[in-house]
Design goal:
This protein has 570 residues and is mainly α. The chain folds into 2 domains: 440 residues, Up-down Bundle (Amino acid/polyamine transporter I), CATH 1.20.1740; 77 residues, Orthogonal Bundle (Recoverin, domain 1), CATH 1.10.238.10. It has a two-stranded antiparallel ribbon. Helix 4 runs antiparallel to helix 11 and helix 18 runs antiparallel to helix 19. It is elongated and about 90 Å long.
Amino acid sequence: MLIVLRTSMEPIKPSSLIDFVYSPIEALTETLERKLGMVSVVIISLSAMLGSGLFVLPALVMLDMGGGTMPVAGIWLAYLLAALAILPAAVSKGELATAMPSSGGSYVYIERTFGPMVGTVTGLGLWGASMLKSAFALIGFKAYLWVLEELLGITINLEIAALILLVMIVAINILGISRIKKVQTPIVLSLIGFMLVLTFWAILTMDMNWDAAFGPDALGGSWDQVWRDVAHSTAFVFVAYAGVTKIAAVGGEIKDPDRNIPYGILLSLLISCLLYVFVSIVMVAAVPPEGYMMEDGQAREDPLYVFAEAIGGNIVGVISAAFAVTVLTAMALAGIMATSRFPFAMARDNLLPEPLENVHPVYQTPHLAILGTGVAMAASITLLPVEDIAKLASGFKIMIFIVINCCVIVLRKASVTHSWYQPKWKSPLYPLIQIFGIISGIFLIYIMGSKAILGAAACCVLGLVTYYSYGKSRAHPKLTPWRTVRTELMNADKHEREKRWWIFHTVAAKRSHPDYLNENEFVHAMGIIAPELTRFHRRQLFHEIDIEVDGIIDVDQFLEGLERNLDEQE
């Protein structure tokens, strides 16, 4: 074996100290068509939320807010606080999506900010949480199917029915996003109309007990326990809003993403919050919380049927059950569409097997990722209880939203070096709204307790095993914004070298000669590194560094020249 020792006469090239490769964000390509406009964005987002939030969760939240022993009626407060808690993440996602309008949503933002290891953990965790949320919708579907059994006079195997429906949903997803849009639009608009008619009918015809929602007993016991119960229920109901940012997962299929994604997210959050709060107030004012419980004290999984039957009798109850089955199906439809884009995006980054990135030649959909998601949902529907699914999905989603808020802070801080981060829409009240989102998220995780933490820990372990067994050998190390910020705080000299190296390659990569800079390109690069220098001084610096007088400089000349001419002067 021949060992070559570096002698003192051999200078160390600055570029040899760089332990990552150049991987520009511009290299990200899309293989899916952009077909969705603003209306479609709002419809898909609402269809991913309103199903379980209206048809399944209310009774569960009543019991949860009562400490698990007695139902209470102040659930509207949990819905309102959950909307406020998710607002920072919604705003942050709106900004991130306009800088990275790519399919994969939160996974893409986190992977580009923190690197492939954190990206693998996030991508698999998001896939799992989103898949559980979609399974939650089909489990709710099972809870309403018994009403149709009685109406039709037949016996339906509820589990088999849910699985058959899942097969149909997977098939529709493979057939294409335009078909999903056509199915969901009339369903969501009909649902909103039906719920408004139902609630105003209750207000006009029933003896409403508004004290149930707003009175001194609306939140249960003593104040020292109430705040814990409200906070726990807020975290529990968080899953009802998870779909508000799900549209970013299909960002690569949205037209005019700079406008449609951020405003679509905020508009769907506003609509869903108003509907949740208004409907939950009327539900408890029209029917006492005890009416939504079973004889054994457990919460019913079909609370809207109870509400509708109390207003209009059996016929209206049956109509509500039919709506529930239809809307929960639409929710699962949107859920699989968004969920399947996480493994699709991870395969594109070489963190999962390449076939998951394949797009169907006819329907232009990631069919293998959709099929894999459908199989996992089938297992969840068969094996997991509804309440545990809601808590597991909420817990990990809250953690992801904490990281999403961190992404905006890190990317803003590193944007001088990573000039690709140029969002067309920026978060208002930065960084206060992101800090609020981080703190409130940590608080909600703490309140949720061990089940949420254990679920998230399991996702982290799965992600780390996947990364070290598959992704690490295939993903190239690169200078991430997080590394830039971290190095700036811990090692200023190393940070400056890496920053200059990155800017050199960022400017050079835009030309046909990625290994050197000419005078004009050098002047542009120095405008980023040292904007205080005039154009005359930048040109003069180029000629001082270009000792070979050939009109170009490579990366080592660039780094050595700046250290000699800029750093020594300081």
